[in-house]
Amino acid sequence: MKNVDDLIEDARSLADRGFSKGEIADELNVSRQTASWLVERAGATPVQSGAPATSTSTGRRSAVTQPDWATSPRRSRTCSRSGARTWT
After folding, report:
1. Does domain 4-51 fall into CATH 1.10.10?
2. What is the DSSP string of 34-52?
3. Beta pairing partners, 53
4. pLDDT digits (tens, 9 = 90+) for 3-54
5. Which of 1, 10, 39, 85 has its CA 20 to 30 Å from the CA of residue 18?
6. Cβ–Cβ under 8 Å, residues 39 and 50
């Protein structure tokens, strides 16, 4: 297990590279609360959660795609199987 000073340095490095606190937590295998504490101790500023994600393998940024449920087609009122319940 790494000591706290090493984790703080790693958190600083990841935050400087644009990682969010959640991504830092995943990379360091710690909780989000611990990642937040480590970043705070390091004095670094991580990217906010809604910002584009960073790929850990290439270091390139890619936009995170979320479905737009407001524009998705609605399901039909009935199921295709006979005797199925109708949607209310």
Report:
1. yes
2. HHHHHHHHHT--PBPTTSP
3. 62
4. 999 999 999 999 999 999 999 999 999 999 999 999 999 887 776 665 554 4
5. 1
6. no
Strand segments, DSSP code E, in 27-74 are 53-54, 61-62
Paired tokens of 35: 């990642």
Q: Give per-residue pLDDT as tens, 50-68.
A: 555 444 444 545 455 666 6
Q: Which amino acid is at 32?
A: R
Residue in the structure block whose two tokens are 């199925």? 84
Of the chain, the end-to-end C-alpha distance in Å amounts to: 54
Domain ranges of the chain: 4-51
- For the entire predicted model, the pTM comes to 0.51
14, two tokens:
């990841």
